## 1
Amino acid sequence: MKLRSIIAIAAIAVCLQGAKIQQGKPEDVGISSERLKRVHEAMRRYIDAGEVAGTVTLVARKGRVVHLEAQGVSDIATKAPMKTDHIFRLASMTKPVTSIAAMMLHEESRFLLHDPVSKFLPEFKDMKVAVANRPHERLAPGYDLIPAVRPISIQHILTHTAGLASGTAGPAIDLSKKLAAERKPGDVLGDHIARLAKLPLNFQPGDAWEYGPGTDVVGRLVEVVSGQTLDRFFRSRILDPLGMKDTHFYLPDGQLPRLAAAYEKKDGKLAKLNTPGPAARDGRFYSGGGGLAGSIEDYYRFTQMLLNGGQLDGTRLVSRKTIELMTANHIGKVPMWRDSLRGYRFGLGFRVMADPGEAAKLVSVGSYGWGGAYGTYFWVDPKEDMIGILMVQLMPYAHLNLRYDFQNAVTQALID
C-alpha cells in the first residue's frame, strides 16, 4: 500500500519552549528557506514510495534550530501521524554518549587512553588471536590461536581497533554469533562482557579497524571505574544535566505511547518488527553500544553540547580540548572496510571526515557523527557551525540513500 505523506510541521518556538533551545529563521544563519524545502521533498519521496513509514528531521546552525519537521506516520496500522516529539530506538547512536561518559572519567584522571583494559576488566588479560588456517593446512575451515602481541587498550575499544570478536566478520564469527544467542533475560552488561572476553580476537589489537562490540566494553569500563550502572551514570552525569528527559534505556510507562514503530521491508511492503528493547519492563541490560531510545530534541541537546565544545546552557560535561581529542583521527591510515566510510577516519566514538572527495559527499573536513541500526543518523559540522539529525525506524536501511539525501539537502541550502 502506498503511504500518503502526512506532514506535521510543529511550530518550533512552541515545541522547544522551556528547553532553552534557540530557534531562528534560516536566512538569519546563512541558510536559504527555499532551498531547505528540499529536505521535506527528499523525505516525502521515501514515504510516498513506501520505503519508510515516517521521519523526523532537524537542522540547526549557529546555535539556532531552523528546521524541525515530522512527516508520515509513526504506526502504519493506526495511521497515527508522526510527531516531532516521538521517541526512537537510537541503537548505535548510543555509542557517542557512552564515549563521552568514558572521557568524563578520563578528565578525572581515572585512566589513560593507553592503559590496558585489563587493568580495570581483568577478564581481558592474556587474550588470544584467531588466525585463519591457510588452505593447505586442512580441508575444513578453521583457525589457530596465537597470543596477542600487545594488550587491548582503552583507546582500542573506543576506536573499534581492539580486534574483538564480531558477528559480521573474522575467523571466529560463528563463536560471536553464538555469544549473542547465549544472552539470558536477567543478564547485566558485566555478564555479557565476561563471555565476550573468552572469545579469541579477530586480529592483533591496533592492527586493523572492524566495527564491533567495543563500545559495550567501554560501557562496562564506565560502570567499573565509576561504581555505578551505566544507566545511573548516564542519568546523573549526562541526561539530567543536559535536560534529556525523553532518553532512556527502558522507557517509563508514560512515554511508551510516543515510541515510533520499527519496520522492515518484507515482500515489497513495510512489516512491523517485534523489538521489545526500550519497551521491556524489567530490563537491566544497559548496552553502551546500542541501548538508548530518545527524541530528536533530546539528541539535539547532546549534539549542540558537542558543537559548543562540551557545554550547553552553562552545564559543562567535558572540556573543549576533550572534544578536540575525540574528533581527531585516532587510527592513522588503517583502512575502514565499509563503503559508507570511504573518506572517513575514526575518533573516539565518532567517524570523522578526512577527504570529502574520496567520500563523494557534501560535507566539510572535520565533520563528525554516527548512525544507528534503525537508520537514525546525525552529523556535526564545526566548520559550518551546523548540526543535522534524522530519525527513522527501518531495519535494515542500507539499501536506501535516505541518510545522504538528507545530508545533501541540508548542506546545499547554505548560502553564506
Note: The longest strand covers residues 64-75.
## 2
Amino acid sequence: MNNKDNKEFGFRFHGFKIVKFSYEQQDDVDNGEDFEFQVGISLGFAKTDAEDIEQINIKVSALIERKSINKEVANIEAISVFQTKEFSKIPENNNCLKYPKPFIITLVSLAISTTRGAILAKGGGSFLELMPMPLIDPKEIVENFQQPN
C-alpha cells in the first residue's frame, strides 16, 4: 500500500467508567495459588453530535474464580471510551470492521491496560493485588472481531 492509500485520522481517550466491581475478600490466599480469569471484550460504536467524530466503547469484563475452592471471587466490568475523527472516510471491507486492525488493536490494548490498572487501584489492600493477572493478546482478540459475518 503506498502513501496515497493511507488514511489519517485522530483519536483521543475520552473516558473510563467502572460499571461493576465486586469481590469477596480472600484472606487465606497462598503464594502462587491459581486463579482462573474469564475475560470478555466487546466493542460498541456510536455517532456523536459532531458530524466528523465517532465514538468507540470497549468493554472489558473479568470473572475471577479461585480454583482451590472452585468459587467465583471477583466480577469486574469497565468501559473505555475513545473518540475518533475522520473514520467516515475509511471504506468498509467485506463486512468486516471498517477500522484498520492496528488501530483497533491499539484501542483494545489501551482498554485492557486501563482496566488492569483499575483492578489494581480499586483492589489495593485485597487479594486482588496479590494475584498475577494473565497476559491478553489484543491482536488475537481483534482477529476474532475481523471475521466477516
Note: The chain has one domain: 10-145.
## 3
Amino acid sequence: MSSVRPEPAAEPAAPSVPDNARGVAGRAWPQRLSRWLAACLPAWLPVAALGNLVAKLLIVALGLAITVVVARQGPKVQGAFALFVAVESGLLTLFSGLGLWLARQMSQQGGRPSVRALPMLRGVLRAAVALGLLAAAGLLAMSWGAQAMPYSQLWLLALGAPFLLLVPTATGLWLGEGRMWPINLAQVAAPAVVLAGLLGAWWLTQGAVRSAPVVLMVLTAWVSGKALVAVLTAIYALRHAARRDEALEVALDEEGRPSRLEVFAQPAARWQAQWPFIATIGVTNVVSLLNYRASLFLVERFHGLGAVGTYSVAVTVAELLWLLSSSVTVSAYARIGHPDARVAAAMTVQAVRINVLATLLAAPVLLAGAWWALPWVLGAAYQASLLPLAALLPGVAGYAAASSLSAFYTNHLGRPQLSGAIAGLSLAISFGLGCWLVPRWGALGAGVSSSAGYLGAIVVAYGVFLKHAGLPVRALWTRAGQA
C-alpha cells in the first residue's frame, strides 16, 4: 500500500445507487449504458476521492521523475535501484499489520468516536521501532555476506529501517478515520524529498564528485528522504491523536454522559492481544508483494541487472493503472470496514465497478503514450520495455479490483488470510509460468506470466467476495437492491 480519506460521517448510511436499467424491452442502448455508468459513480466519490486522486497524480509525477533520473544512469543502475526498492517494500509490508490493526480499531466505531486513539498509536509506533531495529540487524547480516549489487548495499536500508516503518503504522490512524489529507501529504512528501536528494546526487556525479559510485548515492538519497518523512509523519500523528482524545473528552463532558468514565477508565485496545491478526496481515502483504515483484528476481536470475532495469520500467508504467483504483479504495476504506455487512458489500461492489472500468479504458491510452515516450525520454535501451508492458497491461487492468476486495476481506471480515490466499494463487501461477517462460522469452515471458497470474486470481477473488457477501454474480453490473 499504502493513504487517505474524508472526514467520517457520524453514521455512514448504505450508499444509494441509481437505478440500473433492467430491462424494459426496446430501451435504447445509450440509455442503458448511461444508467449503468451512473450506477458506477456513487455520490461520495467526487468528494472523497478527488483529493486523494490529485495526491496520487502528484505522486505519479514525482515517481516518474525519480524513474527518469535513475533510469538515465543506465539500465544496470535502474535494475539495482528496482531490486533495492523491492527489498525495502518487503520490509514495510511484512510489518504493515500494525497500521491496519489500528485502522480497523478506528473504522469499527462506525464513524462515532468512542475510544482513545493515543494509547493505541503509541503502542503500535513503539512496536514499529522495535521491529525496525530487529529488521536492521538482519539487513546488516545480509549486506555483510553479499557481493553483488544491490544486496551489498543493504546496510543503507538497515540504517533507515527503524524509521521507515513509522509511515505505514502512523497512517493507520487516519485510514481508519477516513481522513484523506494527512495521508496524502505524507505520500507526496516522501517522493518529493527523495527526488530532491536524487537530483543532488545526480549533480554530484556530473561534477564535483565524479568518483562517487552512482548506485550508492542514489540509494543513500532514497533511504534518507524516506526516513525523514517517516519521522515527521509519526510526530504529526501523535499530535493529532492527542487532540482527538481531548476533543472526545470535552464532548462527553458536555453531554453529561457517564460513558466518559467508561471510555477513559478502561484500558485501550492493545495490539498484542490480536497479534495473530497482525502477523497474518504481514505475511499476506509479503505474499502480495512477491506477487508483484517476484518476476524482477526471475529476470535477474536468468538475464542479469540490465534486463531487470528495462523490465522494471515496464512494471512501473503498467502499475500506473492502479492510480485511480488505489485512490477509490483508500477513500472507501472506512466504509468498506463498516460493521453492517450490507453497507460494506455495497461499497465494495461500487469500488470494484469503478476500478475495473477506469483501468480498462485507460490501458490502451497508456500503452500508446508509453510506446512513443519511453525510448525518447529514457533512451533507446528502454525500447525493450514496450513488449513486456503490452503483455502486462491486461492482467494489471483486471487486477485493479483486488484492492477493494482485499479491503473487504481485511477491514470488514477481519480475515486477511483470504487476501493472502488470492495473492498466493496469483503468485503460484505467475511464478510457475515464469520459471518456464522467462528463460525462453526474457522480460516478455515475465510480463505474460504475471498477467496470467493476475487474471486467474481476480476471478477467484471476486467469487470469494460474492460468497461472503451473499450476492449473485450479476451484482457487479446490477443495482444492489435488484441483485
Note: The longest helix spans residues 214-255.
